[in-house]
Amino acid sequence: MNHDTLNISYAIYENAVERLGTTEATLPDVEYMSETISGAGIGGEVEEVIIGMISAMTTSLNFRTVCPAAVSLMEPRTHKIDLRVAQQQTDSKTGDVKAVAVKHILKLKPKKTGMGKVASASAGDLSGDYATTYFATYYNGKKVTELDPFNFICMINGKDYLADVRKALGK
Prior knowledge:
single chain, ten-stranded antiparallel beta sheet, two-stranded antiparallel ribbon, 2 helices, 6% helix, globular
């Protein structure tokens, strides 16, 4: 069954309090670390992806103006964010439409806040970039990803690709 999807709306929460004022959230890129390998038995170079090891992640949040939520997220501490998305899913064969819940759980620390601009009759365009140390995604209530570098977890579709690494390290 093929589905066409789009986001209907979203909400951001911190400690069960909705953070109003955001206009857009950009989730982190997930990039696996890699190393170029060359030597005997290899005809040139090969880029090898290192299992479960991810590069530093950054989440970006944009706000209309300076607001309490934006200022709170400037506090130099870990913020646990719950970003909830309502996605519209259309079955391309039947035309049936339904809403699907997607939830992203993130642990963030502020690294940069662009305080925006001031102009009459316009948005202020405040923006923040946040170092992301934990990122999990739930699709219709089922956890589909969990990236937790501090605890050696890289779970994708139910498989933890760092389980053997933890075992080898005695963790």
